[in-house]
Write a structure and sequence with these properties.
16 helices
Length: 406
């Protein structure tokens, strides 16, 4: 039996796609990837069969070339921007006179029907359909001008959470404790895609994709949300044609900043969170990986859905046994074979994400399962290097030093 073919797409330099690639390969899948041609963690793994360059200014051409070369059974986006590119490529493939209908079919098989694409990419629309499904969500409103905050203020107590679509990792999310702060945040949000920010991301973070965002000057959709006093939590699932096949939830123990990503989590059994994932997957007919973020209210223990990540998340590669093994669920679906039961990688409840928990020197490291990519020493060594040493400027400086010493 031929191994299932999987294509990962990643515009960032996070370790998420590398961790997932390792798990997919160990499960018996052939892994290909589209990512930046230098400095990406995927290049430090031994499991990716071929890596294709992901060009910041021509991302759709990059994706189309990789798809044509590998003919994958599924494409797995590993960040929000890669999701956006797949949506754009799908639209391009369906234009009148376009003959590459197989590309559109692949993206639909990987993500679900195109009718769901606008919803998964918009925070307000996602919560609206969740509310229609009878799921618990905080009060939320679209803000088009700063003046829209006045009627909101008359109905909702402070603090508020101001969010911009098209952002991730805590960027574009601000907690406002006064109406004036909310207005200030609203006016500052367009700078996220300004020229200065794009150049900084290019030089410091080795991220050329911000240049395309700046050039296109997208109109940011901004929403304001009532604040729920509680603990952050999230779940991740793998689904196929609207049916959840595997997944689990966690409560966040430690984060990188007030609104930043989690560094340490605790696995929990929360039926309300998993029901929410099943309802969303069914309503939108989704396929592939996605995650949902929640706040578990302190007073009631109720789980409020606050947003969606329409892609794989740091939980997706973790194999935690029956019903919680998303990688094996994917293998079974692509191979057409019976689901294999594999032992959980850990019995510990707490999981420390690598390398984030180490970088933040979390106090929970001793009591947690260390999510280290064992068997990949080059990747471990690369991820443990301080970010400053992995930056574009540092590489240029070292290169110049070497040339001058010759």
């Amino acid at each position: 039996m031929a191994a299932p073919q999987v294509l990962l797409t990643d515009t960032t330099t996070w370790s998420l796609s590398a961790q997932l690639a390792i798990s997919l390969s160990h499960a018996g899948m052939d892994v290909f990837a589209v990512c930046q041609a230098s400095g990406h963690p995927l290049l430090k793994t031994s499991v990716v069969r071929q890596v294709f360059p992901y060009h910041g200014l021509r991302p759709l051409d990059s994706l189309a070339a990789a798809i044509e070369a590998t003919n994958p059974q599924i494409v797995i986006p590993c960040d929000d921007r890669a999701v956006e590119h797949l949506h754009e490529l799908h639209a391009r493939a369906r234009r009148p006179g376009t003959s590459v209908s197989s590309v559109a079919a692949l993206i639909e098989r990987s993500l679900g029907p195109p009718e769901s694409y606008p919803t998964v990419s918009a925070r307000y629309d996602l919560l609206r359909i969740a509310h229609e499904e009878g799921l618990r969500v905080p009060a939320t409103s679209v803000i088009r001008t700063a003046e829209d905050l006045k009627p909101w203020h008359s109905q909702q107590a402070l603090p508020w959470v101001v969010k911009a679509d098209g952002t991730w990792g805590g960027r574009g999310v601000k907690i406002a404790y006064t109406p004036e702060q909310a207005g200030q945040f609203f006016r500052e949000l367009p700078r996220l895609f300004g020229a200065a920010r794009a150049l900084k991301r290019l030089i410091v973070n080795r991220d050329p994709f911000w240049l395309r965002s700046w050039w296109r000057r997208p109109r940011l959709a901004v929403s304001v949300q009532s604040y729920v006093q509680g603990r952050p939590a999230n779940c991740a699932v793998f689904c196929w044609k609207g049916r959840v096949l595997a997944g689990f939830g966690v409560e966040v123990v430690s984060t990188d900043g007030q609104t930043g990503p989690a560094t340490v989590v605790r696995v929990i059994d929360n039926p309300e969170m998993m029901l929410c994932a099943k309802r969303i997957a069914s309503r939108l007919g989704l396929s592939g990986f996605f995650g949902l973020d929640f706040i578990i209210e302190d007073t009631s223990g109720a789980a409020y859905l606050i947003e969606m990540n329409p892609r794989c998340t740091p939980l997706c590669h973790l194999q935690l046994g029956k019903g919680r093994d998303m990688v094996e669920a994917l293998w079974a679906q692509l191979s057409g074979q019976a689901l294999r039961e594999t032992p959980a990688v850990t019995q510990k409840a707490m999981i420390a994400y690598f390398p984030d928990a180490w970088n933040s020197q979390s106090k929970f490291l001793e009591s947690s399962f260390h999510d280290i990519p064992l068997g990949e020493p080059a990747l471990v060594q690369e991820l443990l290097r301080p970010w400053q040493e992995r930056s574009f400027l540092t590489r240029v400086r070292k290169s110049a030093t070497l040339r001058s010493s010759v």
